[in-house]
Amino acid sequence: MAPQSSSQGSRSSSKSRGRRRTRFCGERPVLRTSSIAENPGRRFWCCVNYQIGEGCNYFAWAEPEGQDPQIQRLKNKASSLKQELQKAERKFALALAVEILGWTNSWASAI
């Protein structure tokens, strides 16, 4: 599914000058922002005629997926949550070992 644009980029923006040249139909690409659920807020280059009738379908993400700031934040959050889970698992294993040891000692002294 192709992204829908929520905001039009400016042809005169400094980022679009020199960075991207004319494509397919001869028009200069514009920088737009995706508004679809799969890539909300992600920037992409496209033809000014992108998704307009029989217009040009030039499309390219502005940043590679691995460098997208939102993706990087989510990867960092996932890493942090994984570390917290590992700490909780170690604490649980220690608490279980202490409980089993205490139960074994109380059972042995009862005999």
TrEMBL record:
> PROSITE patterns, from UniProt?
ZF_GRF
Spans of biased composition, class Low complexity? Answer: 1-13
Q: Which InterPro entries match?
A: Znf_GRF (IPR010666)
Where in this protein does the record put region Disordered? 1-22
* Zinc is among the record's keywords: yes
Sorted UniProt keywords = Coiled coil, Metal-binding, Zinc, Zinc-finger
List each coiled-coil range: 71-98
Q: Name one GO molecular function term.
A: zinc ion binding
Which superkingdom?
A: Eukaryota
Domain GRF-type residues, every copy? 22-65
Q: What is this protein called?
A: GRF-type domain-containing protein
Give the source species.
Answer: Arachis hypogaea (Peanut)
